[in-house]
Amino acid sequence: MAESQQERDIQTTFLARCRREGQLVAVWLVSGKRLVGHIRGYDRFTILLEHGGGEHVVFKHAIATIGPIRDNRD
Asked: How far apart are CA 49 and CA 14, in angstroms?
């Protein structure tokens, strides 16, 4: 499998799981800003993030990292 195809599959798998499970995620932008919300949708270039009572389209090229928010009560 081509490396770019494999990367897309990893990304798609991760985003699909977060969306399906309703996982709260933290999105760190390259500007340093942090957004916390739920992924409502995504495509090749963007992620639709429900954040702060509204929906925001975040361009993937502006994302530095993205990860689930873990429950620290364990």
From this structure: 15
- pLDDT for the residue numbered 8: 62
- The CATH number given to whatever domain includes residue 56 is 2.30.30.100
Distance CA 14, CA 20 (A): 10
- Give the total number of structural domains in the chain: 1
Q: Within a domain: residue 74?
A: no
Beta strands (DSSP E) in 1-74 are 24-29, 34-42, 46-51, 54-59, 63-68
Residue 17 domain flag: yes
pLDDT (tens digit per residue) in 11-70? 999 999 999 999 999 999 999 999 999 999 999 999 999 988 999 999 999 999 999 998
Judged against a pLDDT cut of 90, whether residue 7 lies above it is answered with: no
Range of the domain at 32: 3-68
